[in-house]
Amino acid sequence: MMHNKFCEDEMTELKKSTSELKEAIISIVSILNKHQKGTLYFGIKNDGTVLGQQIGEDTLRNISRKITDSIEPKIYPIIKKINLNSKDCIKIEFEGNEVPYFANGRAYVRVSDEDKQLSQKELLKLIQKINQQNNKWEEQPSNITLDDIDEDTLKKFVEKGRKKGRISYEYTNKEEVLKRLSLIDKQGKIKNAGSVLFAKDPNLTLRAAIFATEENLTFLDMKDFSGNVFELIDKGEHYIKEHIRWSVNFNTGSFQRAEVPEIPIEAIREILCNSYCHRLWEEPYDNTIAIYSNRIEICNPGHFTDEATPEDYINKVEPSRPRNPLIAKIMYLSGEIETWGTGIKRIYQLCKDDKIKVKFDDRKLAFYVVVYRKDVGELIENTEKDLSKSKNVPVNVPVNVPVKISNIEQNILKYLINNPNLTQLQLAEKLGVSDKTVKRNMNKLKEKGLIERVGADKTGHWRVNL
């Protein structure tokens, strides 16, 4: 005896009886337009209770004829009589890839376990989406050859995958590895995914900038990085690590101090990896990093999926829907990402654990992940607390380091964090003190290991080690 285990979802519809055949046809169309396949039962209530269904000689034939007459383009489902809990029911399995489908001239789409009629605008959007899926950019042939593939990047990829236990084979040569990764098509052409991941010069740019305030008005720094996806992820992570604030934890139980970033680096790398897995490659825009005084924004072209919101992935388990499944699969093999569909939840949890606010923002032309930075005063306060708690003096910090940091030292640190190129004379003007006072306090900060000079006196800058 088969027990009741049925429930409605995006790919399953339950109907009490064939008296609901008209509604059933709408459900079939809705599911086809969303998932291109699904299952429908007659004889089961929508709460999963098996009622049974009276089935005559022509019942199955009439259902098949009605479906064929009502749905365009035509489908030919598998319709059969089944026994559930000792009761006769009807099971219909259907599939089709000629989206959009229409039920009596109207298009519908599945939203959770409900059927929604599409407006003309929504129908056009669905057609565009299906066209993109059927002609995925990552699967299309590129104009590069094997000579254009960076062998070092490919070798490193295989090595990382083997260490992760996700790749079983050793590196042999470019062609064989690319074929194993499904990056060469039937005509022997390297796919676009292979180009952006492993080409020497894939014509990719990551734009990065630092702004003086919370607005994008005054630039402190701007850089364009080039390279393949793996290189740009590394360069982006390094750029952010260089320009965020770091606090020093002396209370480690050893004679070594621990440098702690204001934002968890693991979350930063996860955001960068996801920005390339899910970007819309057809768009002519670049991935970007913008570092403001109060936040960091990492952006990729393309909207978030229409079927779910970031909160859906944070609050419950959602099936993975990577925009670029081939690129996502390869990044998974190398260990850059973990299980598909868990990136947003991991980012959220890493930031939550570190008491950092993070926002997932779907804007007009792109998707942004916004991570808010810790306040400078909070970092200084945490450093002071660690100093006061420490029983051991770290060997790489002078023994005369005082516990307290003066107000003028705090203000110097705040100015240098926002603009590391300030001179002592400029600092004196901003603080309203003499340049000798600034020099004296900066020497104290250097002795404490909180600032250091990078580069020459005229062309270098100050690095703050909070």
Descriptive report:
This protein has helices at residues 21-35, 59-70, 120-134, 151-164, 174-180, 192-198, 229-243, 265-277, 310-315, 325-333, 343-353, 376-389, 407-418, 424-431, 435-447; strands at 12-15, 37-42, 71-72, 78-84, 87-95, 102-103, 106-111, 114-117, 205-211, 219-226, 246-249, 258-261, 287-291, 295-301, 358-362, 366-372, 451-454, 461-464. The chain folds into 4 domains: 12-133, 2-Layer Sandwich (Methyltransferase, Cobalt-precorrin-4 Transmethylase, Domain 2), CATH 3.30.950; 139-198, no CATH class; 205-372, Heat Shock Protein 90 (2-Layer Sandwich); 405-464, Winged helix-like DNA-binding domain superfamily/Winged helix DNA-binding domain (Arc Repressor Mutant, subunit A). With 466 residues, the protein is an alpha+beta fold. Residues 386-403 have low confidence and may be disordered. It is elongated. The strands form 5 sheets. A 6-stranded mixed β-sheet has the order 10-9-13-14-16-15, with helices on one face. The chain has 15 helices and 18 strands. Helix content is 37%, strand content 20%.
